Fold:
Amino acid sequence: MIKMTRGSVEKRPNGSILNCYMPMMKSLTIALFLLALITSWSSFANIDIEYQVTEVAGSNTSYGLSVIAPASDPEQLVPYWHRKAVKICGSKKYKASALIKKETQCGDAIKVTSTGEKCEVIPASVFGTLSCNGIKVNGKVNGVTH
Structure:
């Protein structure tokens, strides 16, 4: 049996080389992979999202909600739309209209730079209306008798 210390390299009797760094390199590779995975996930979690909330005229329970962000696919914004709807309505349930999803687009305006022309970028968006409804339990809506 060959006794080795960390970092040592020993030549075996059969001519092969035994390197104590091998197991450490494997765990380092796994650690770097996990770090890269977490970093890429957190960078998506930190995208710049803009919310626009408009109260529907004559109603204090219906709203228009837009979620706008520099995402390539508007489907990525749908969970953010629903999270914001929950925050707006609080403990009340909400009904949502069919969501209108728009991909990132090139606008009409053109910007001339030293490298050429570029169009104005219109970010991806998701729009829908939501209606906050109270939950009726024993004749009470959200704990208040009406």
Observations:
- Helices lie at 21-45, 78-89.
- The longest helix spans residues 21-45.
- The CA atoms of residues 31 and 37 lie 10 Å apart.
- The radius of gyration is 28 Å.
